[in-house]
Amino acid sequence: MNVGRFSRLVPSATRLARTLITDASQTPSSSFLRPIGSVTRKIAPSAGVQGTLNWPEPQALKAVNPLAPSVEALMVDFETSAPLEILSVPRPVLASPVRSDIIHRVVTYERNLRRQGTHNSRTRSEVRGSTRKITPQKGLGMARHGTKRVPQFVGGSKAHGPVPRSHAIEIQRKVWLMGLRSVLAAKYAQDQLVVVDNLQIESHKTRDLGRILTQNGWMPLPSTGQNASIMLMPLMEDGVQEELKNLELASRNLPGVEIMNAKDAEVYEILRHDYLILDRKALDLLQNILLPL
User: What is the CA radius of gyration of the chain?
Assistant: First the structure.
């Protein structure tokens, strides 16, 4: 394509400017022809003389947590389940993320601590029997054998059998605390965590405690044939205190109802029961343990 043919038809920028500007007063000023990135550019009348593009100074970004720093827990009366007070509990205590992998690690750790490790099997040096060669080396057309204590014979030893040992494994304390936060958050989210003012009852009879648990909806009716699954967790300083003696006596003959000191709280025991019933002192203790992240 011949470009020269059309260059005479298309006016240049200089020729077009001459035709449009006929008077010297219409000549563009130097401020009008100033480039965009000029140092003396005015962005706005109130901005004054600014730098190149008048961008604001960069500021450090700060993450804002959209969640409230605390959650609400309803404290009720143990015998009547009447609401008493709405408690404000820090979110890390009752509303942490539920980490099932951390719960699995903690449960494995706690259950391994319960294993006695007394399993044992006899080696060929411990099995009763003679060490003489039971068959000749040659001449009978059968396999070569020595002592009858070897594992392939009935009554012989056990090859690579279990030996007494400890099954305990190591785990970091922060991991265990994270598992405790996770299981408490799961109970709180499923409405299976109950906070009461105290766990004192007037009677030591099992019938009275069963009636309290049934009326409050924490234990199934006896007609259903199902056992309860309740963990009562008061704070006991030195053993069973006098005011909790009736509770301890009444719960002995209730299947599925157990008492555990808040100082000895275990993730596996909390997870194993359907309902976790805490008193106010136990909740304060858990806050002191779990709050420092």
Answer: 41
**Regarding predicted confidence, which is higher, 85 or 40?**
85
**244 close to 200: Cβ distance less than 8 angstroms:** yes
Q: Are residues 208 and 192 in the same domain?
A: yes
How many angstroms from the chain centroid is the CA of residue 127? 49
One domain, residues 146 and 181:
no
| 260, part of any domain | yes
- Picking from 245, 250, 95, the residue whose alpha carbon sits closest to that of residue 185 is 95
Domain that holds residue 80: 70-116+169-290
pTM: 0.72
Distance of CA 184 to CAs 168, 285, 288, Å?
24, 14, 14
Sorting pLDDT into bands at 50, 70 and 90, what band is 57? confident
Which one is predicted more confidently, 3 or 232? 232
Judge whether 28 lies within some domain. no
32 band by pLDDT with thresholds 50, 70 and 90: very low
How many structural domains is the chain composed of?
Answer: 2
CA distance 258 to 266: 13
- Range scoring the smallest mean pLDDT among 24-38, 78-92, 114-128, 276-290: 24-38
The answer to whether residue 221 is domain-embedded is yes
CATH code at 247? 3.40.1370.10
Query: Does 186 lie in the same domain as 145?
Result: no
What is Dmax (Cα atoms) for the chain? 133
Nearest to 267 by CA among 144, 123, 102: 102
Distance between CA atoms of residues 77 and 193, nearest Å: 14
* Contact yes or no for 271/225 (Cβ under 8 A): no
Contact 201, 212 (CB under 8 A): yes
* 100/244 same-domain check: yes
Q: What is the mean pLDDT of the chain?
A: 85
